[in-house]
Design brief:
- The chain has nine helices and nine strands.
- By secondary structure, it is an alpha+beta fold.
- It has a single domain, classed as 3-Layer(aba) Sandwich (Glutaredoxin), CATH 3.40.30.10.
- A six-stranded mixed beta sheet has the order 3-9-8-5-6-4, with helices on both faces. Strands 1-7-2 form a three-stranded antiparallel beta sheet.
- A hairpin with a 5-residue loop joins strand 8 and strand 9.
- Helix 4 runs antiparallel to helix 5 and helix 4 packs across helix 7.
């Protein structure tokens, strides 16, 4: 998982080595040379209980609108651990939980711009594709693209491959139609104290489906069994009231 913030460039080799050792997160919080050892010790555990309400208005979603359990992912299209999740874990979550109507899956953008200079524009590309009903198709294509150095230059080709109206897609990118929503996701991540990508919140949707009462946070690129355990616990039937049969 990658943590978010401004990293001292002289620390970058150590920083990347630490991230690779952790094997799960891209950091997103600020660090200085003096703070680095202490900050590393303050990273949250891979799974922890939380109590917060996450607003979901405008967030891309897939799954049955009637589902009560939801996952909210905060991610960056160029984060290697987000790519790992998208390619190795998400397909199983979709087939086992989303497509079966058990879970609704939401995505919030958290581009780590100081490390991934093209991630914000990729997030915009997915949103622009979403305006034509192809958000998740672009989401998948971006994560499967192996992130060439000039990935932004490839976005029109991706749009054509998805049979999008290229002129409309390009105009959306050029005027930054989705930029404000992405910036709002970044602010939400700060409010919820997200420290890196990917971060996942699991909880129960409100009655309108416009927000989620999160009860668990999963920090980093967790393996499928971790999600399965958390989701299966959430999906257990509520215990019957005393005296009911």
């Amino acid at each position: 998982m990658r943590r978010i913030g401004q990293v001292n460039r002289s620390l970058m080799p150590w920083f990347l080595a630490a991230a690779l050792f952790a094997g799960a997160i891209t950091v997103v919080t600020p660090k200085t040379a003096a703070q680095a050892p202490n900050e590393a010790s303050k990273e949250p555990p891979p799974e922890s209980p939380v109590r917060l309400f996450i607003a979901l208005d405008g967030a891309p979603a897939m799954g049955d609108a009637k589902a009560q359990v939801a996952i909210v992912e905060f991610a960056d299209y160029q984060c290697p651990y987000c790519i790992r999740h998208a390619t190795q874990v998400l397909p199983s979550l979709v087939s086992d939980y989303v497509n079966t109507g058990k879970v609704r899956y939401f995505f919030k953008d958290l581009p780590v711009e100081f490390v991934h200079s093209q991630a914000f524009k990729e997030a915009e590309a997915a949103r622009c594709a979403g305006e034509q009903g192809k958000y998740w198709e672009m989401h998948d294509r971006l994560f499967l693209a192996n992130q060439p150095p000039g990935v932004v230059n490839e976005l029109p080709a991706y749009a054509l491959a998805l049979n999008l109206d290229l002129a409309r897609f390009q105009q959306c990118l050029d005027v930054g139609s989705s930029a404000a929503r992405i910036r709002k996701d970044i602010q939400d991540a700060k409010q919820y104290r997200v420290q890196g990508t990917p971060t996942f919140f699991v909880g129960m949707l409100d009655s309108q489906g416009s927000g989620m009462h999160a009860v668990t946070m999963l920090y980093g690129a967790q393996a499928y069994p971790v999600f399965k355990k958390t989701l299966d616990q959430m999906l257990l039937p509520a215990p019957a009231a005393q005296g009911e049969r």
